[in-house]
Structures are given as C-alpha cells and as structure tokens.
Design goal:
The structure is a single chain. By secondary structure, the chain is an alpha/beta fold. The chain has eight helices and 13 strands. The chain has a nine-stranded mixed beta sheet with strand order 4-1-5-6-13-12-11-8-9, with helices on both faces. Strand 5 (about 55-60), helix 3 and strand 6 (about 105) form a beta-alpha-beta unit. Helix 2 packs across helix 3.
C-alpha cells in the first residue's frame, strides 16, 4: 500500500494563540500506514483549494463547539466556547474535499461539523436538550469505554467491524439533533443519539462521535477505523475485517 498523505485540521488554543495536536490522531494514522500532516488554520480559498488537491485524505478533528451560526441557530447559554476561524476554514474546505471525492474521517467535533455544514443541526448541550442516563462526557482515562453503541446492520462500519454492538469512550456535550440530508446513521447510543454517520455515494466519508485517537493503543476496533480510512485514502478500498 502506498502511504497516503492525510491532512489533519489543527487544534486551536485561543488563549495561548497556538496550534497544537493530540499525538493519537497522528499515531493512529501512522500505524495504519498513512503520513499525517497538521494543516494551517486558514480561510484563504486558494490555499484551501491547493490543500484539497494535494492531500489524499482529511481528518476533521475534535475541539471547540461548532458555532450555532453554522446550523442557523442563536447561541444558547449552554453552548461552549467556539472557534469561528475553524468553523470558517472547515466549512470552506469540506465542500472542496467532497467535490474531489477525497476520503474524510470526522471525530467528535468532526462529526458535528460535517453534519452542520451539510445542513443538519446540533444539540447545543445534551444534558439540557437531550437528557439521558448515558454518560456522554466521561472522566479520565479517556482510552476506556464508558457506554456502548448499537451498529446499524449492513452499514460500512458494521461490515468493517463485524459487530452488532460496540463499547466506546465518550467526551462531548453536543451531538446531532437533525441529521443532514445525504448522511446516513451507522451507530446509535442507547438514548437514541446518532453516534456515527456515513455519506453514501462517496468513496469514504465516515464520522464517529467517540474518540479512536485516545483508544487506538488498546482497542482493535479503533485501529480498524483508522485502517479503513487510510486504506481508502491509499485507493485500496475500505474493508477492514481480518
């Protein structure tokens, strides 16, 4: 397999005026056979167009709350800190990447951003707007599962993992409210929250609400998700069953 170049959306520390990266994003891609590269934070369309052309796949990472402006809502007092520069960059870059049918993997905020950018909406705060007994925001350590999700039969994720139910970690307070047109669910939490999606008709567009970047060292399923993404970016298909 050729080693595909994977562009990763940077994590932003607004207070320190810095970009940073969790090693799990990089290591998960490297161990699956890819070459991870953190992208610059920019909304320059020419620059983003060149990045969309150059990289073989894109990982939309976790981070700040997606601004309610992306999904046409007013900000509630339960919404957390947003990063408008990330929202702007990603809502410009995503359509460019989809137009070229480049593989995409979204994680946590990445799932939420993809859903919002494609016309869906989000719960600004799950405890206030979608209360349940499921723990969606666990304490450390983050590589351990805290609840389970049910995989939708015959979806790419279910076929990839070969399971009906999956234990996952969880560290979020927002989630999908209305699913965007063109996306299909691949997993649900026990409280009905959509926890994974895909985009039929695309070469590879998957997004998960949990955090394989934290669990890939100890969890084979997390490694399979990274593996399917990297294989798609390398042009080798998406099957990840052993």
């Amino acid at each position: 397999m050729n080693k595909p170049l994977i562009g990763i959306i940077p994590l932003i520390d607004i207070e320190r005026e810095s970009y940073w990266m969790l090693p799990g994003y990089m290591k998960g891609i490297e161990e699956a056979g890819g070459i991870p590269v953190m992208l610059p934070l920019t909304s320059d369309r020419e620059a983003l167009g060149k990045l969309a052309n150059y990289f073989d796949g894109f990982l939309f990472s976790g981070g700040h709350d997606v601004s309610p402006a992306v999904y046409r809502e007013e900000v509630s007092d339960k919404c957390g800190e947003c990063c408008p520069k990330r929202d702007e960059m990603e809502t410009i870059l995503l359509p460019m990447v989809l137009e070229q049918d480049k593989p995409v993997l979204g994680i946590c905020r990445g799932l939420q951003l993809i859903n919002a950018a494609l016309g869906g909406s989000l719960y600004q705060d799950l405890p206030a707007q979608h209360p349940s007994s499921v723990c969606h925001r666990q304490p450390a350590p983050y590589d351990q599962p805290i609840h389970s999700v049910e995989l939708v039969p015959n979806t790419p994720l279910q076929k990839c993992l070969g399971k009906e139910e999956l234990p996952v970690n969880s560290c979020h307070h927002q989630g999908i409210k209305e699913l965007a047109f063109g996306l299909q669910p691949m997993a649900y939490a026990k409280d009905g929250l959509v926890e994974a999606v895909w985009k039929p008709g695309s070469r590879f567009v998957w997004a998960v609400q949990w955090h394989p970047e934290f669990s890939h060292k100890v969890d084979e399923n997390s490694r399979k998700i990274f593996g399917a993404f990297v294989k798609a970016a390398a042009g080798d298909g998406v099957s990840c069953l052993n």
